[in-house]
Design goal:
With 277 residues, the chain is an alpha/beta fold. It is built from eight helices and 14 strands. Strands 2-3-4-1-5-10-6-9 form an eight-stranded mixed sheet. Strands 12-11-13-14 form a four-stranded parallel sheet. The protein has a two-stranded antiparallel sheet with strand order 7-8.
């Protein structure tokens, strides 16, 4: 069952429950006859499972102890103070000592840039086809847990408050993106990103307009204390081979570049400005 891709919902997550119902009703998932943490496990032939955990998903480091998956796709809520409706995707990890949103300090999960890019492009298509102009489609930087699993994972999210977590168009968009992640191949090479804001607009544009695959992204706010160990994790904790580092040039200051570039040179990566990709 190693080739199975596992979609994850949570009993603590309204959005994931809405998305899960869409996957069952519209995408052919059927009750497998087995259960996990008291909830049915649904299957899509031999290609995918839909499982529900009782934990908050940012704390679900335990899943690979129960499922031998090729990748975990977390179908999740997104919460933002702005309350602005959004469809989002990102890799997970903590660049600093603060692990209050799951995972371990200074630890990154295994990214899968291929599927992050696949999901973002599908979210954009779904948003446009469904005339959901009020929804942002956004690639986020690497943040929160889980971090300790060795199975690649990504989060696809519906935001940004309870009214949107129950929005059927939004749930259908996330479900469609998750299904593309069930079917899409995992490519051989990827890039990592540095700089800019939490909502990674420069990298968002590269994925949507240039078909670039980007795994872990370290934003400007994480670069002041960026260590060689974390840069190495961004490279090594990737399902694809990382060959290039893309820099949001205006989204990094001179001191940050001075700290970062010697590390990247030692890693033998191509280093390129985002404006020149």
């Amino acid at each position: 069952m190693f080739n199975v891709r596992v979609l994850v919902a949570s009993t603590q997550d309204i959005a994931s429950q809405t998305i899960g119902r869409v996957l069952i009703d519209d995408h052919g998932f059927e009750d497998s006859g087995s259960s996990f943490e008291g909830s049915p496990v649904y299957s899509l032939g031999e290609s995918a499972l839909l499982v529900t955990t009782n934990r908050d998903m940012i704390l679900a480091n335990h899943l690979e102890q129960h499922f031998e998956a090729q990748v975990f796709v977390f179908c999740s809520r997104h919460r933002a103070q702005s309350g602005r409706p959004a469809l989002l995707v990102h890799s997970t990890g903590n660049f600093g000592a603060d692990a209050s949103f799951g995972g371990e300090p200074e630890q990154l999960s295994v990214s899968t840039a291929s599927l992050v890019s696949t999901a973002l492009r599908k979210l954009k298509i779904e948003r446009d086809q469904r005339s959901m102009e009020e929804f942002d489609v956004t690639l986020e930087v690497t943040h929160h847990g889980p971090t300790s699993m060795n199975t690649p994972l990504l989060f696809i999210e519906l935001g940004s408050d309870e009214s949107h977590w129950r929005n059927m168009d939004g749930a259908q968009a996330v479900a469609a993106a998750a299904m593309d992640c069930v079917r899409a191949p995992i490519e051989h090479e990827a890039s990592i990103g540095f700089g800019g804001t939490h909502y990674a607009s420069k990298f968002n544009k590269l994925v949507l307009e240039r078909n670039i695959r980007i795994g872990h992204i370290a934003p400007k706010y994480a670069l002041d204390e960026m260590s060689p160990s974390l840069v190495h994790q961004m490279i090594l904790r990737s399902r694809e081979k990382v060959t290039r580092a893309i820099i949001d040039w205006k989204g990094t200051n001179a001191e940050q570049k001075g700290r970062l570039f010697p590390i990247l040179e030692e890693c033998d990566l191509e280093v390129i400005r985002s404006s020149r990709v």
